[in-house]
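Reopening this ticket.

The earlier resolution said the output was attached, but the attachment link was broken on my side. Pasting everything inline this time so it's all in one place.
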Amino acid sequence: MKNSNYMGFGILACITLATILTGCHSSHQDKSAPASAYILPDSLLGAIQIDTVTNELYSSAITLNGRIDFDEDHIIRIYPMVSGIANNIHTALGDYVQRGELLATINSSDMSGYSNDLVTASNNLIVAKRNRDAVNSMYRSGLSSAQDSLNATVQYNQAKANVDKAKRVLENNGGGTNGDYYLRSPISGFIVQKNITNGTLIRPDNSNTLFTLSNLNQVWVMADVYESNIPYVKLGDSVNITTLSYPGKIFRGKIDKIMNMLDPESRVMKVRIVLNNPGFLLKPEMFASVVVNYSENKSMLSIPTKSLIFDNSQYYVLIYKSPSDISICPVQINGTKDDRTYITSGVALGDKVIATQALLIYQALND
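Inline output:
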């Protein structure tokens, strides 16, 4: 008698499961039959979110390897302007400096020459002024000609121009009048490269930079695109960028330049994303993961990703018609993008799906 009861209970369970499955669109059978005698409580009905199956343009994503780089449009490289010996290096790699701040002092014979030129030009100006004044006085007294007065004035003007030239040369080379070249920062920013130490012999024909500065208010993300992914990458595509340093933070941007050529060794094409960098979180040479979002020219049924239930190697959704008519339907998914999942079968356009508390209701339906 006891075994008969167990057998009857098993048969009843099978009938109940069959009733649940017959309510799904994938079987194209009667969808009006409720999955079970379960009735959604009013307290839960007011707390759940019900969404609609929509038809949306299918979008997908590919992931690229990237690297944070300097914004080359906002970087300053300082080259040697004079020869000499560096001393009094006032800054270190990574320091933030203000525009006009002294970076280093260079003892330079060139600067001594520029200072001497200014002194010589200034003395010549004094002589030319005295000569002009004397000739003009004699001209007013009738002791010299108008031509003599004109020549004296021309010589004075030329001497004055030579002084102005010597001053400009000196100012363009640091402005030091004691034989020192004062190297100052032309912008406010970080010292991102430094190739000078105390005692360094400086030569103006050396192509190496002394300092490289960048404000880092913006950075570039350079991402590698392999040949197979080139068709999916287009100018203006939106991207989500993550880094090892900030795993929970997403930096959003757009592809603003495609290099349109492959590196002959790595066989990759470079794309560039320009990012604002508030707080200087992103540092040059950081590795980055770049997710490129792209759309395909086809539509597909879409549901909220949070409405999916995964059980026994199968995805399900709950189709809602009324508190007493909720069906469990297996679905086949094509992919997920952000908070939407694309469905190939199992639901129909306009179906209502339970988007929150779905797992709780699913378990209650299966009790």
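Reporter confirms the inline version is readable. Residues 109-141 form the longest helix (33 residues). The helical segments are 2-21, 42-45, 109-141, 146-172, 358-365.
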